[in-house]
Amino acid sequence: MTRARELQSRNAAAKSIASHNLRNRRPQRKDILEKQKRIRQLDEAILHGDVATLQRLSVTGAGFVNDGIRRRAWPLLLRTIKGRHKEEFEDDKPSKDEEQVRLDVLRSFTHLASDPNVREAVRRKRQDELSEVIIDVLKRHPRLSYYQGFHDVCTCLITVLGKESATLAAECMALVFFRDCMLDNLEPVLDQLSLMMGIFRLEDPEVLEFLNRSDTLPFFALSWVITWCSHDLQDFEKVARVYDFFLCSNPLMPVYFAAAVVMSRREELFEQECDNAMVHTFLTKFPKNCDLELIISHAHQLFETYPPETLQKRTQTWLDDK
What we know:
Distance between the termini: 90 Å
CATH topology of the largest domain: Cyclin A, domain 1
Radius of gyration: 24 Å
Number of helices: 18
């Protein structure tokens, strides 16, 4: 009788384990099917130049899924397909910012230096490519001024697109998305950051009140905005995911994204000592384990609710559009 009970108990345990494994496999299979469906949608959108579908997919789920798709989607979004670059030029005159570019490039691709499988020659090659991409943009557009952080943007572009496509993309992004960063000073960008306070006033007055009590200005988010988080996020897949979203959005979307990041940490924020230095230091550090998809979704919702013109009118915070 005891033997029969033991067998019965073992069979029940085996069935329980099998049932548990089956339940675990079902979500995984569902995820795989959803991913395959997304890839088909992306391929179809890229094939037909369907930017609207790319924009929709950039807001949800895994964005553009992988770098193979990004290599086709990003140039489409930036209108930098082959043959649309300006004619090659010869200009031996150095850019006024070349020395700062050189210093920043030397600090780039540090993750390759710590990878035992990557030779130093590979890292140097990437650094040379990075320097060439940045200098190319600056020489083609002498009125643009280099800023520390643009090298982080170009590093992401080279990693995903390769040097040739990255050169085209960097030029377009400098002129469209980062134009205000590449003026003689960052004052226009600091003005844009002030819109965050308006978002807090309309969406989360408690966050605004805490920041005001601690005399904390929104400059803690400067790096997030001028590098599209590529300087602050350690996980490159997350960086690329953010780029998927921003490339499909208004140039001011990083400001809304930054506001969403802060509001996602409101409980942690309120636990901080209400002191300027403490709060600024806390907010400057981009949260490591944040729910990126939730933040992207919230940023998109904020933009839909308070588009730039509406936000400026309701908060009486005006940007100079010159």
